[in-house]
Amino acid sequence: MKLGILGTGMIVREFLPWLAGPDCPFTVQALCSTQRSAPVADEMCEQYGIPQRTTNYFELLQWVDVIYLAVPNLQHYRYAKVALEAGKHVIVEKPMACTAAQTEELAALARRKKVFLFEAMTTQYLENYNKIRELLPRIGRVKLVQCNFSQYSSRYDAFCAGETPVSFDPECAGGALMDLNVYNISYIVGLFGEPNQVHYLANMERGIDTSGILTMEYNSFKAVSMAAKDCGAPARYVIQGTKGYILQKSTANWCGGVTFHPNQGKEEHFNLNGGRPRQAAEFEAFARALENGDQEIDFSFDLTSCTFCGTCADFCATKSITLTDDYMMVGTTPEDFMVRAKFIKKAPPKPKFTPEQLAEMKKKAEAAKAAKAAAAAAQKAE
Prior knowledge:
The chain is of the alpha/beta class. Helices cover 38% and strands 21% of the residues. Strands 8-9-10-7-11-12-13-14 form an 8-stranded mixed β-sheet, covered by helices on one side. Helix 4 packs parallel to helix 5. The longest helix has 27 residues. The chain is globular and about 65 Å long. The two termini are 35 Å apart.
């Protein structure tokens, strides 16, 4: 299926080399950027053999079957809704939306349009995470869960100097809860389901949570999630039970090696992710779901998304934080949202490169794939 990407940020640059390679189940057809990022998008298209580029989101929707949304948190809901209305499958980065109500609305719209809606929460699809599920019965009755995702933000100094970067802007769904603790919450809810109660204690600066501790109460155990953008600490994920514990020393979005430490017996170590980009497993899972029409995987993580978004909404309400929707989509005006007929045009897509340029790009892409395959074969032979 043809995949279109909205955005040119760090995450896109991280996974695009694999996504454009021979092992990816999707064909990267187009890239959409802002006018400001157009030169960067041009370079990425040429480097990875992406045939089409645009600065108009509605044009992107004409060219592809699946949309990947790599935009700031606050924009997820609106971009996803427009794509779903246009009958496109959607992959949206975490968090799916800023509130539980928005998340539920998007899920209902996807069902009504009979298309797929995925949250790109890498943790849920990684082999190491599946291994944790498998190991849980061996630690006995779970008593305590601890998660710590703390990293000193490169933008925190600017924030302290009086600037308001997007990641620290309460009106743009910034802060430690939305940016980092979302991974911890998904990690826990994906393993144990929805908690009975949730409480969030935050360190607030200029109206935004720069760090905080979230507690989750279950019937027979307690879970604690810590996340910080104003200080750093080693990542630690520990699930403690009556017969042993499970330990990870990496953040939830990477879900690195797993150690099972029984009360009696030897430690066991596992690392099953295979050294691939952390997004590879989720893209493969999405492709299988699309091919097989498997809606179970599509909606099985509604619970994690809605639990997280509900927590965010409760927190924002207690702190009197208002999430504004005063932004526009790439290549649009506010009036475009009132005219749904504009979402789909029947005109054939217009290539953004000459035939000669496309041929040269294809040649480079094939050469890159051949070189990658040769390197893999050589490594296997060793």
